[in-house]
Design brief:
Helices cover 73% and strands 0% of the residues. With 123 residues, the protein is an all-alpha fold.
Length: 123
Amino acid sequence: MSTNIHAQADHGLSHVMSPKLLIGVLATLVLLTLVTVVTATQPIFNFGAYPNLIIAMVIATTKATLVCLFFMHLLYDRKFNLVIFMGSLLFVLLFVSVAMMDTGQYQGAIERRVDAQIEAQAK
């Protein structure tokens, strides 16, 4: 018969970060959400919709990074996981950049074609 020689004492629940830090990150996320709403509703720059979209995307990426680093404990995890996260952010940035360039390249042609179809139907 085997005997259990290890103590069965509870080690307790430990948390890597202090509640003060987590509340600070939460407050930052709420503030960035408010900035995103203001950016989406009030044009900050008079350059068109793209600068406001870029600002909103940067804020959203910053918020996602904060959530991953602090609430998902990626900051204190193995560095390989951080490298994977940063690599995925770079690939998303590449994908969105190419999609926005494509949209900017052909948006005028699409609008002209739609306008021509509307004029043809009106006649």
